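Aim 2 progress update. The chain analyzed this quarter is reproduced below.
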Amino acid sequence: MIQVPYFAFRDWPEGIAQQLEQAVVQTMGGNQFILGPEVNNFEKAFAKFTGTEYAIGVGNGYDALVTCLKALGIGPGDEVILPANTFIATANAVVQTGAKPILAEPDKQTYNLTAATAGKHITPNTKAIIAVHLYGQTCQMDELQELCKRYDLKLIEDAAQAHGATYKNQQAGSFGDAAAFSFYPTKNLGALGDGGAIVTSDPDVAAYSYSYRNYGQKEKYHNQTIGINSRLDTLQAAALTVKLHHLPTQNAERQRLAEVYLTELQTINELILPVTAAHCSHVYHIFNIRCNRRDELQRYLQQQGIQTVIHYPVPIHLQPAYSYLNYKPGNLPVTEELASTSLSLPLFPGMTEVEQEYIIKSVKDFFR
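Predicted structure tokens:
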């Protein structure tokens, strides 16, 4: 029996591990551990990669989301529309600003927020929409941009799972007023610890973000606003610069692995496989399948030595922390069905052909 991890750090492409070690050692030699030159170098490189004017490195993806919201003036009394089937950090960030999260159902096929699903929730108090590029697939951004323009709303992208994904050949993160990225180690572009970034082409958003991440100061001991301490670590920036160079290659490998799954599993009628919308690209941070016998399938695969993950077993509106919003079971049926049927299969750069063939065989054996 083969043991297959859900995710593993592999030296793929070969040599990346040594490049990371060299970058970290070289950075240590510079002895500038807070906002050293490596941070600025990475910010410039990431802004260029995303097709934006500015990238502002922060301590993690959650702080990136909060900073985006605050930079755009979101606060108490405001409502922010977001998909109900996202990771809880998206809603938490809204609450952190004092605003109210308004949970919208996702599209039934792509699991992403659309203009049609978001538009139902717009009220006079709506200030912004957060488009979450779930699992690595971009939202259909034209319609969301038009909706926000029509109602004079801010558009924020939660691109934590979508490094390198595109819509109409334009990079995720470059459509909204601001976008938040996470560099959690398992992301498509992952650091060696926590990290995040805001990207924007709005100079006012950038200026606020640079200040807010560093206690609200533009120069030391002169504080214009009440900020936080959330600066991208210099060592992490050095590692991210190396990994950014390899991101297109690693994303292409994720897409290749996903195509193998899609081809080999398409004949299983009980499975619902990922669907990619027109003009959207998918970089498969997560390869999510759906099945009415999800829990039984997960137990079977575990018995075969295959690790899987459920994203996300309890949706936000049914979490105890959000009971004050007064949602009840059945209020968001699409989101609840996704929570009860979704299962994520192993997919990561460096996963071997033997490992993937074993997973596919095991899934097919379960349904025989």
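The mean pLDDT is 98. The radius of gyration is 21 Å. These observations will guide the mutagenesis experiments scheduled for the next reporting period.
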